[in-house]
Structures are given as structure tokens and as C-alpha cells.
Amino acid sequence: MTQVVIIGAGPTGLTLAMLLAKQGIAVKLIEASSSFRRIFRGEALMPSGLEAIDQMGLAELVTKIPHRAIDAWEFYIESRPIFRVDEPMESGGKPCTLISQPAFLAAVLDRANQCEQFELIQGTAVRDLLWQNERVSGVKLADGREISADLVIGADGRNSIVRQQAQLELVQVAQSFDILWFKLPTSAAFQAENVFYSVLRGQDAFGVFQGSEGNLQVGWSLHRDNPIEWQKIDWAEKLAAAAPDWLASHFRAQKDSIERPLLLSIVVGRCPQWHVPGLLLLGDAAHPMSPIRAQGINMALRDAIVATNHLLPALQQSPNLAVIDTALAQIQAEREPEIIEIQRLQQAEVAQAELMHNYPILRHAVSRLAPVIGSRIRKSWLDRQLQLRRGFTQVTLKI
Ligand SMILES: Cc1cc2nc3c(=O)[nH]c(=O)nc-3n(C[C@H](O)[C@H](O)[C@H](O)COP(=O)(O)OP(=O)(O)OC[C@H]3O[C@@H](n4cnc5c(N)ncnc54)[C@H](O)[C@@H]3O)c2cc1C
Is 11 in the pocket of ligand 1 (CB under 6 A)? Predict the structure, then answer.
């Protein structure tokens, strides 16, 4: 029987493992972290990601885990409201929804565990690849174990070890910022209506919303050209100083409850080649995504669907390594156009934010003239969101 080894039980690796194992393929999934809660997990899903979950037969599962729809998006510049857009943006469409990623991954794992051919090896990292006749033939774990495979899939995220060991180049797009991530107790305003607020004041910028598990989450943009000693800052005061008054008082009231922030470094880029014989990269390992407009999980789920479509026919035959390797190139060819386009749109969003960051006069003009030009800015923002919500290509699970 053909043996697949998948490295990384994030959204890419776990959903792909589940889809293949359900079709009777022998899958070993290796996850370094011993708990899904131990590392930061984003949680916003756009309609394209929700549609992928539907196709995987997991829609009902999402209703049973902590989740919360976004009700609206609202933008503040220099403490003035600029515009607001209600969700869902498409009539009859699904709203952007926050789902608890640890709970989602645990639920998908439950499904995978029901398949006889599935095995999870958790709490130990992959360190190296095994090679035979210039083809990847398995992996070596940190604890010294060696696991053979007819196909290895690297779904180990943006700092992928698999990518490095396979010597697959990552062409990075320079990023000007990292993210500091905070959690704090929510307020009545967010419980009544979960608005995703984007706030810009001076050169300070952050986004805030109520997460799927009921706490407030804040992503603070930490500019690389303006390094600060963020560990020493009074964050309740710093957030309050940038926020509109009603939100500032909440930050001050929660002074003692704001959790120490987590520094999340942003890596964005794409491998010109996602595969070598016997090995394929998927998800952030092949194309690390910016957090802007919540695209990475959505792209990961869509990668898993396209990979399943191409791999199943190849894996269901008695092991034919040449047929498997041909499928790897087909997967990259089908997924790459969407990734290129979505990363381009994300960079366009970043460029808009950079303009505001760099030009005080522009911030001042937009905030002052919002009553007059706010509707035009709103329309231009809305036009840019459509593809970021729906995706760029048709992705359909063919099993
Ligand atoms: C600040 C921030 C916020 C974000 N918010 C969102 C959001 O709201 N919505 C959205 O769609 N996207 C978001 N993203 C992007 C999203 O997190 C990623 O694009 C997505 O998680 C990629 O999924 P993945 O499965 O490919 O990789 P990952 O989610 O990174 O999973 C990789 C897995 O591999 C494991 N692993 C790593 N190395 C090894 C090893 N050597 N051996 C074994 N296992 C290993 C890791 O422990 C991890 O479980 C955000 C990103 C950032 C940085």
C-alpha cells in the first residue's frame, strides 16, 4: 500500500490527511507541538474558506465548536470614524467567521482518527529528509526515528524545515511590519455586535475584534523601521491613546487583565518550485501568507482540496512513483495562479496602509473630509475585497 507522510498538523496538513485517509490512503501525520493550543493560531475564515469546509463535509462540525461571525468592519483614522461595511457583504452570502482553530483542528483530528489507515505522531519534530536515488523516501524525526514514505508532504508552515532540507528556494516579499498579539476580556459593545475595528492614529495602528472564544483580540502593527522596546511599554495606556474614546476606557479598565503580547513575525513569499521527486510543499510552507485580510487558512484549505483531487488517483494505484511525481507539478500549476493573485491583493492592502502611515497630511485630510469622501473610500475598499473573500479560481473537491 502507498504510504504518505505529512509534516505539520495545521489547517493544511490535518485537512489533507483527513481527506486522504477517508479514501483509504495510509497517512502518517507528524506534528512537532504536543498541543494545538501551544502556538498562535489565526481564526478568521472568509467565504472561500467556509466553502472549502462545506466541501470537506465539515460544515456541521463548525457549528459545534466556538465560532462567531463578524457583523461589520469599521475604520477609524485620527479618532474619527471613516466608513463602515456590514457583513455579509454579498447578498445571501456567508459572513466572515471566526472559528476556534484549536477546536477545529481537534475536531478534524477526531474524523481522521476514525480512519484505520491514519496515524498521528505528535510531540516530535521532523529534522531531516531521507533520500534514495535522488528521490525523497521518508523523514527523520528529532528523536532519531526514521519513517519511510512513497510521498512526503511538507505542511510545516512559514519557517518550514522541510523546505530548507529539500533546498527549495523561498522568494520573500519584504514586509515592513510584524504583529504584536494581545488578548483581553471583552466589552458589552463587542458582545452586542462583533465589529472588526481598524484603528490608525499617528503612526500607531491596530485591529481589534471579539474572537471565537469570547475574548477581545488585538493585532498591533509593529513597524520594523521604528523599533520600540515593546516589552517595556504600558500597553493599556498605549492602546487607549490610539483608540476612540469608548474603546480607550475599556483598555484602561482592563489594565491588569491585558495578557503579555505575543510577537508574531510576518513572513510572506512563494517558492518558485513547490516539489522535488517524492516531496511536495503546501500551505504556508510553499507560500507563506500575510495576515492581512485573513487569507492563509483559506488558502491552506483550498490547497488541501486541490492536492486531494490530483493525488488520490495517483495514490490509489499500486505504488507508481513516477505517476505520483507527475501529480505534484499539476498541483502547483493549479494552485499557483490563485496564490499569486491573493498575495498581490494583500500587498495592495499593505500599500494603502503604508501611504497612511507615511503621510500625516493624508491621514489628516482623510479624517477631516470623511463626511464628504467617506462613501468613495468605502466603495474602493469594498471593490478590493471581493476576490479576497471568494478566491480567484474555482476550487471543487472531486471525491
Ligand atoms: C499574526 C497572524 C495572524 C493570522 N491570522 C489569520 C486569520 O485570521 N485567518 C487566516 O486565514 N490566516 C491567518 N494567518 C495566516 C495563517 O495563520 C497561515 O497562513 C496558516 O496557518 C497556514 O496553515 P498551514 O497549515 O500551512 O501552516 P501552520 O498553520 O503554520 O501549521 C504548521 C504546523 O506544522 C507544525 N510544524 C512546524 N515545523 C514542524 C516540524 N519540523 N515537524 C513537525 N511539525 C512541524 C507546526 O507546529 C504547525 O502545527 C495569520 C498569520 C499571522 C502571522
Answer: yes
Ligand 1 proximity of 278 Cβ (cutoff 6 Å) = no
Q: Is the CB of 264 under 6 A from ligand 1?
A: yes
> What sections of 114-265 are H helices per DSSP?
161-165, 188-192, 235-242, 245-253
How would residue 259 be classed by pLDDT, with cut points 50, 70 and 90? confident
Q: What angle, 0 to 180 degrees and rounded to 10, lies between the N-to-C axes of helices 11-22 and 101-113?
A: 20
pTM of the model: 0.96
Are residues 31 and 129 both part of a single domain? yes
Axis crossing angle, helix 296-316 with helix 47-55, rounded to the nearest 10: 30
Q: Poorest-confidence range of 129-143, 152-166, 269-283, 308-322?
A: 308-322
391 lines ligand 1 (CB under 6 A): no
End position of a domain, from candidates 240, 265, 290: 265
Together in a domain, 21 and 128: yes
Q: How far is the CA of 348 from the centre of ligand 1 (A)?
A: 22
Any domain includes 69: no
How far, in Å, is the centroid of ligand 1 from the Cα of 157?
5
154 in contact with ligand 1, CB cutoff 6 A: no
The CA-atom distances, in angstroms, between 388 and each of 71, 289, 309, 330, 374 are 17, 12, 23, 24, 21
Ligand 1 centroid, distance to 41 Cα (angstroms): 7
